[in-house]
Amino acid sequence: MAELKYLSGFGSEFSSEDPRKPGALPEGQNSPQRCPYGLYAEQLSGTAFTAPRHDNKRSWLYRIRPSVIHKPFKKLDVAKHLTHKWDEQEPDPNQSRWLPFDIPSPDQKVDFVAGLHTVCGAGDARSRHGIAIHVYLCNASMDKSAFYSSDGDFLIVPQQGVLKITTEFGKMEVAPNEIAVVQLGMRFAVHVDGPSRGYILEVFDGHFKLPDLGPIGANGLANPRDFLTPVAHYEDVDLPGFKIISKYQGSLFVAEQDHSPFDVVAWHGNYVPYKYDLSKFMVINAVAYDHCDPSIFTVLTCPSTKPGVAIADFVIFPPRWSVQEHTFRPPYYHRNCMSEFMGLILGSYEAKEGGFLPGGASLHSMMTPHGPDDKCFNAASNEELKPQKIAVGTQAFMFESSLSMAITKWGAETCQKLDAKYYECWQNLPKLFSDKINV
Ligand SMILES: O=C(O)Cc1cc(O)ccc1O
Ligand SMILES: [Fe+2]
User: Minimum-distance ligand to the CA of 363?
Assistant: First the structure.
């Protein structure tokens, strides 16, 4: 496949035209009486019409057929572990850790949609407040089908396998250590080359933003120009039985149509899918002493209406220099008024070298204590504090949410990956209390 082209920037007003149809984008207005090349104009609204200008998100799509040409939606039962049922299990405040989730074996063909499994979540898509954390476990490409969520934005974190994502806006390729965001209502199809696994943070409230930088200044963390949006690319194909799959109020529905929905010849707007390479993150950290809160590594945030409180933050733990003097350098012991779901894309995580593995996960719920295991504590309390490059070849991440999440039945039981012995990693932390002030 030829190398894909992208537009660079975050939250920009973009426009794109498939080069095979120059002039497809109407000039000077959104809805001409007749669009160039006989296209239909369709607006995709990502915020209320009346949202303040700095928050307002919408795009105009110029397409071969309007999306409305489809047969009625019917319930679809291909992903039986995709759910918003947060009451399936009794609440469980324990520290939870999952071994890597199983990818289906080659004798079962499972695509991205059928491979969606919900691990935990909270809230309600109907009142547009909440999140769901899913994993996708698949080995086959979507065929004659496209998916969209009517519930929330998907932040997709591939852990194994490259995702080739065809969207209405064009194509993107997303490899492990990159992420993609496909926002509410945007149709997409996922092609995979083999066994594929990753994590999804779905937010029901609103959209992801770059965090404010405050005293950091105008540059740093995830820089806007490193976000990439696809360029317009259309296919003009009649495909009887093409399936449009909608995730709607936590369930899947399918509607058939006889053509590809990837028929957008040109588009413009600021409501777009995008990808980001996590290796581009400009890491800022403590260079004198103490351990910064992990919010310093926020890539994207979906804010709530409370100042400074996120519905969910996407935070990474990238390779970086650790230089703090007279400091216990690993993550501190912690009880949080936020829920911390962590996953591992590559390598290992400094606070726990064993047990937390790529493709697995952990959840430290609201006010549940967590922190370094005994090995990490002992090593970090006694090590010589030289400048040290840490997390080399690794990438852990956290979905941190102000919501108190429930684990689904699949997450708690059916997946059979929950590690009942996780708590043991803290049980051997020694009592070091002594009469001597300098230990
Ligand atoms: O390891 C964790 O659970 C996440 C985490 C990281 C960090 O640097 C500080 C606090 C914290 O909870
Ligand atoms: Fe924490």
Answer: 1
The model's pTM is 0.98
Task: For residues 103 and 199, state if they share a domain.
Answer: yes
What atom of ligand 1 comes closest to residue 336's alpha carbon?
Answer: 12
260 in the same domain as 391: no
Q: Is 344 a domain residue?
A: yes
- Residue 22's contacts (CB-CB under 8 Å, 6 or more residues apart) are none
Q: φ and ψ at 345, to 5 degrees? A: -90, -45
The verdict on whether 334 is a catalytic residue reads yes
Cβ neighbours around 27 below 10 Å, total = 7
Three-point CA angle 64, 34, 147, nearest 5°: 25
Q: Which atom of ligand 1 is nearest to the CA of 372?
A: 1
What is the 8-class DSSP label of residue 413?
Answer: I
Give the domain extent around 45. Answer: 6-278
Residues 6+ apart with CB under 8 A from 35: 26, 41, 62
Please state the ipTM of this predicted complex: 0.97
3-state helix, strand, coil in the chain (%, to 5): 10, 40, 55
How does DSSP assign 181-199, residue by residue? EE-TT--EEEEESS-EEEE
What domain count does the chain have? 2
Residues in the chain, how many? 439
Distance in angstroms (rounded) separating the CA atoms of residues 317 and 399: 12
CATH number, domain of 258, equals 2.60.120.10
Within 13 A of 321's CA, how many CA atoms are on the CB side?
11
Contacts of 191 (CB under 8 A, 6+ apart): 141, 142, 163, 164, 165, 166
Check if 291 is active-site. Answer: yes
> Of the candidates 207, 205, 79, 76, which has an alpha carbon nearest to the alpha carbon of residue 136?
79
Over residues 158-167, the mean pLDDT reads 98
pLDDT, one tens digit per residue, over 251-277 is 999 999 999 999 999 999 999 999 999
